[in-house]
Amino acid sequence: GDSVTQMEGPVTLSEEAFLTINCTYTATGYPSLFWYVQYPGEGLQLLLKATKADDKGSNKGFEATYRKETTSFHLEKGSVQVSDSAVYFCALSDYNFNKFYFGSGTKLNVKP
Amino acid sequence: SQTIHQWPATLVQPVGSPLSLECTVEGTSNPNLYWYRQAAGRGLQLLFYSVGIGQISSEVPQNLSASRPQDRQFILSSKKLLLSDSGFYLCAWMEAGGQPQHFGDGTRLSIL
């Protein structure tokens, strides 16, 4: 079945460091891929998305490219800020678009 | 624009008591609706989803149930809560066709 695997955290970085959070997926058909962010005590917010191979999603300095050949959707940011500290979830929507599959989440701590 | 409301924000209930969490969506018609549970420090577990009024799909066996009495209303219920039902419950909606899911602010449920 469909699934998402993302790197375990926590990831601790200093402010202005480069961020990569790895995400790989298994899916039938052609899923859409998403990154969500969750701040403490809140729901999930959509960060970015990509709907087909080679698409690049971007938002707030974060980027991720839909790589069909490696079944990956890694999240990157060139210079993180303390305010980026949160839990990040990679997700895919299945071929029939009725269900989402979420990774287990990666907690990011950014220190000043 | 579309909005999702979920309440209550926090709830403390004794073991064996009933539960009713409500979620409503505004600004859209016939959305797909979802209930997730997130244990502390963990990922999201899909509990139920609905693609229309009266249509409920259950993902995991448990003592919870869901109902969709109106197009944009989704209710999570239990007749008798267990300690293991503690967690952060998230409601989400999605338009059909591979669009992102949008989440409510969540309900933190503590069972004593």
Compact description:
The complex is a heterodimer of chains A (112) and B (112). Chain A has strands at 3-6, 11-14, 19-21, 23-26, 32-38, 44-50, 56-59, 62-65, 75-77, 86-93, 100-102, 106-111. With 112 residues, chain A is mostly beta strands.
What fraction of the residues of chain A are assigned to beta strands by DSSP?
A: over 45%
Along the chain, the helix and strand elements of chain A come as EEEEEEEEEEEE
Helix-strand makeup class of chain A: mainly beta
Overall pLDDT of chain B = 91
- Would you count the extended β strands of chain A for me? 12
Summarize the amount of helix of chain A as a percent range: under 10%
Most extensive contact: A-B, 22 and 24 residues
Uncertain runs of chain A? none
Number of helices of chain B: 0
The helical percent of chain B reads under 10%
Low-confidence blocks of residues of chain B: none
Largest sheet of chain B: 7 strands, mixed
* Ends apart, CA distance between termini of chain A: 41 Å
- Give the overall form of chain B: globular
Q: How many E-type strands of chain B?
A: 11
> Order of SSEs of chain B, N→C?
EEEEEEEEEEE
Q: Looking at the chains present, what oligomeric state does this protein adopt?
A: heterodimer
Largest sheet features of chain A: 6 strands, mixed
**Shape call of chain A:** globular
Radius of gyration of chain B using CA atoms only: 13 Å
Keywords:
heterodimer, A: 112 residues, mainly beta, 6-stranded mixed β-sheet, 4-stranded antiparallel β-sheet, 51% strand, globular, B: mainly beta, 11 strands
What does the model show?
The complex is a heterodimer of chains A (about 110) and B (about 110). By secondary structure, chain A is mostly beta strands. Chain A has no helices and twelve strands. In chain A, about 0% of the residues lie in helices and about 50% in strands. Chain A is globular and about 45 Å long. The model of chain A has no long low-confidence stretch (mean pLDDT about 95). Chain B is an all-beta fold and about 110 residues long. In chain B, the strands form two sheets. In chain B, strands 2, 4, 5, 6, 9, 10 and 11 form a seven-stranded mixed sheet that branches. A four-stranded antiparallel sheet of chain B has the order 1-3-8-7, with no helix packed on it. In chain B, strand 5 and strand 6 form a beta hairpin. The mean pLDDT of chain B is about 90.
